[in-house]
Amino acid sequence: MTEHIVSPKIYLAIFATLMAGTGITVWAAFQNFGKFNIVIALAIATIKATLVVLYFMHARYSPKRTQLVIVCSVFWLAIMLSLTLADYNTRRHEGRLASATTCYRA
Amino acid sequence: MSNTPPTLVRELPHKHYLNATYGAGLRSWLLTTDHKRIALLYLASVTVFFFIGGVLATMIRIHLLTPGGALVTPETYNKLFTMHGVAMIFFFLIPSIPAVFGNFLIPLMIGAKDLAFPKINLLSWYIYVIGGCFVLYSFGTGGLDTGWTFYTPLSSVYSNSAVTPAVLGIFINGFSSILTGLNFIVTIHTMRAPGMTWFRMPLFVWAHYATSLVMILGTPVVAITLLLAGLERMFHLGFFNPALGGDPILFQHLFWFYSHPAVYIMILPAMGVISEIIPTFARKPIFGYAFIAGSSIAIAVIGFLVWAHHMFVTGESTYAALTFSFLSYLVAIPSAVKVFNWTSTLYKGSISWDPPMIYALGFIGLFVIGGLTGLFLACLGLDIHIHDTYFVVAHFHYIMVGGAVMGYVGGLHFWWPKITGRLYPRSLSRFAAVVLFIGFNLTFFPQFILGYLGMPRRYHTYPPEFQVLNVLSTAGASILALGYLLPMSYLTWSMRYGRVAGPNPWPATGLEWKTDSPPLTENFEVTPVVTWEPYDFKNRPDLGLGTGTPSPAPAHGDD
Fold first, then answer.
1. CA of B135 vs chain A CAs: smallest distance (Å)
2. Per-residue pLDDT at B11
3. Is the complex ipTM higher than 0.90?
4. Nearest-by-Cβ selection for B323 from A76, A79, A86
5. How far apart are CA B7 and CA A23, in angstroms?
6. pTM of the prediction?
């Protein structure tokens, strides 16, 4: 399998983008976007992580099977997060079930 | 079925992996990259942890002989069951079949010379040993009293025992598991011999492929989770401690995201072992090959969706509990597919009662009981009654000991002739299998009743009316111990004095039986070309079956 050579220009461009992302993260941390604070921080972090995986880890130039493995692992992370949040996000509805689950909680 | 005494005196091959000339003595073992030798390094190390866990279990059972506790203080009792769980789960059950038999057999079964990354394979063993040393250090310097589940904030704040080295040890050991899984997946994808298509692979290999997926996808989560608990303990960072802004239930979610699938890391390889033994001793192609292969993958995938059934009474929302209860029932389907296919394979088979077969049949019975009682626990209403009782203890021991350890010991008997080149005494080994089965049931069946009657797990005392069942359980544990000591004794004896087995003593159909016993370092002199379907006894004249001539090497004809 031949190794793909990435030009220094691309590496520098990605590095600059990552630094800019860090700058935006720091700037955003001092602003108040209400409940979007966490959304913005995570969105920037996700974009930066994606760039690292695609270019620094060469995922963009890897065989399809390697890319499938990466997508699967992200999917598994999504399973972990979504099913965990299925617990946290439904606790506020508990009151409606209170009478039916008195015994359950006792 | 009685076998005719052999007329042929066999000898071990002159050159094999055990007497290969590279290096000398201990050095040739500690620096080996041969998957078979690394498997034996693992065999020795997991046996050490099995002994440690076994001694701790024995002390627990002796303590519970009397209602007030006969042996140790309450604090020490907490440490006994915690250290028993940690030693057995993280350092025996999880690595046992994959790291010993998976390492030894996967390259042989698919016709490869070694695993894809031999040096990483050796590295995984060293990581296991380093992780093990951390945990043993924890055991020796104050012990561990949090339960093997390390629930926070007990583990991260309140426990006075040596939690930090233990969680570091398990964190380190996780990398061993990840590297083993990675090695297996790459090997199975890229190193199959010509003609060894995916659907010609032995089901043992399919089971290990599924297991490897769980190892790679799950282990990082538990490793990081335990590290976070350690960081909270050492540096008071708030992850799980409510006083520091953390959430204790989050620990349970993250812990069980791995630790429930970890049950499938233990049982799937054992199922792979059973899928090899059953057709061999029923002399029949396995029933429903594709379904058994697919059910391994299904168990690995669905196994990731059920974790919060461990948390029905620890504060998760009722909606989530309902979802996880439903998903937990689903995992019974692929498990049942396997059991029905194994029993269908037995139907009209030409069954011989060789020792591995007795272990395999024992596995099926015990796994069925363990699996069905798992459905009781997945039921939301019933789980309220039996949560954290001895019912749970009995259930998971039926899966992990009745299932995984029976599979391990059965596999040991099945492949011992391949590993060492020698056979063990047949009658004694059949007797040991029966002793193990009886001892196991006597130990753990009373615990179902105890749990249903309300005896909580992890308590060092109990009301006097529970004593009869506890005494029965302890008596069973003594028989069970004999059931383990017997194979250890005669298998060790056989390494020197056992009759030479020949390449294929049973005979079985896998590629591993087409090379010498013990095999060459390179496994095969010539890369094999596979032209037959799996478990096909009819079109394999090389097995010496179905032609009216006796098997070339009847197993165990000498006693």
1. 28
2. 86
3. no
4. A86
5. 82
6. 0.92
